[in-house]
Each structure stands twice: as C-alpha cells, then as structure tokens.
Amino acid sequence: MDRRSFLLGSAAIAIVAGFMISRRLTIADPALADNFEVTKTEAQWRAILSPAAFAVLRQEDTERPWTSPLLKEHRKGTFNCAGCDLDAYASETKYDSGTGWPSFWDALPNSIGTNVDTSLLMTRTEVHCRRCGGHFGHIFDDGPPPTGKRHCINGLSLTFRLAAA
C-alpha cells in the first residue's frame, strides 16, 4: 500500500466514524431530552432497560436481524415503546418484510417522531418514540399499500401488549 492510498483510506474511515459518532449522540444529548415528555438520566434508563435495549433505544444501535421474538408475534394487540410504554404500532399494520426486523406499514396516530439520519453516508428517515425519544429504527419507501412505507423497527425497542379479549 502506498502512502496516498493509506491517507485516503484513513480519511474515509475518520469521516464515517465522525458521522456515526455524531449521530449516536443525539438522544443522549441533554438539550434534546428536554423536548420529550418522558425524560430520565442515563442511570435511570439503564436501570429499567436491558443492556441491549439501552443500546438500541438510547444509543441508536441496531439489533442483529432475525433475532427478535416479535418477528413471530401475530396475535392482535399493540407494540409499545419499551422505554415509556406508549402505544406505537397496531398489530394490524405489521407484516413480514423479509428483512429480519419487525416491520409495519404505519404507526399509530401521535406515537412517533422522525429525524433525518445521515449516518453511514446515506440519508434515511430515523423513527423514534415521540414521548421519550427512544430510537425505534428507520422508515423506507418500499412498503406495502396503503402507505407504501416500511417502518423497519428494532424488536428491542418495543414490547407487545395483547388486546383485551
């Protein structure tokens, strides 16, 4: 490897790492936390969430595909934010996207917020809980009718509540 290739490669790695680090700081930023109804300190979030759920909800991590038990959840009910228990998705909007993450074609009214996510050198729509700011996943334009949207959601960011009989 020559010096020029090494320098260009190092610069590219630094840029990508910078995008990823700056994106991960958004929810942990105390100034942003003031915009949500439910706020907690990092220690309080860690006390109520598993380490994996904390990484997803509070640090915008992504769970491995095909690992969520919610992929096999087909009963009638709601999928709620694992951080604050806000109803986020109705079971009627869940579908199998084949991506390895729970997918929905729409969210419940007044349940989510979105941000532009420019990490990984692409532009995506990040979706989060509108009440606590917990990171859910991303929204893509390749979903089924009637919306044409695919809410690709980390199962660790949700819990399931069975509908009353």
UniProtKB/TrEMBL annotation:
- Residue ranges that the Swiss-Prot or TrEMBL entry lists as coiled coil: none
From the UniProt annotation, give the residues forming the signal peptide.
none
Enzyme Commission number:
1.8.4.12
Which Pfam families does the entry link to? SelR
User: What molecular functions are annotated in GO for this chain?
Assistant: peptide-methionine (R)-S-oxide reductase activity
Spans through the membrane: none
Q: What class of enzyme is it?
A: oxidoreductase
Q: Write down the InterPro entries for this protein, in alphabetical order.
A: Met_Sox_Rdtase_MsrB, Met_Sox_Rdtase_MsrB_dom, Mss4-like_sf
* PANTHER family named in the record: METHIONINE SULFOXIDE REDUCTASE, PEPTIDE-METHIONINE (R)-S-OXIDE REDUCTASE
State what protein this is by name: peptide-methionine (R)-S-oxide reductase
Q: Which organism is it from?
A: Aminobacter carboxidus
Q: What is the lineage of its organism?
A: Bacteria, Pseudomonadati, Pseudomonadota, Alphaproteobacteria, Hyphomicrobiales
